[in-house]
Amino acid sequence: MTYLNKSFQVATILLLLLLTLVLNLNVSAEEKLIFAVTLIRHGERTPTDDIKSDPYNWEIEKGELTALGMNQQNKLVSSQASNVG
Asked: Which of 19, 21, 2, 20 is nearest to 72 (CA)?
């Protein structure tokens, strides 16, 4: 397992724990939700600055999502959409 895959899994677990905590709060009928925040970790991206020791020739712009990053982002959005309803 690569570092990026592990960090993506950790971020996903933290997000799910946060959602579980928020959804399990007891809210009475008299209380009204005023503000909500969703934390989303972006998928794998190319470096934002030149790295002299990096031998890889990136074919996309600096800071752009890689193909893996797009896949990670799509999976995250799909899982959130299925949780919302």
From this structure: 2
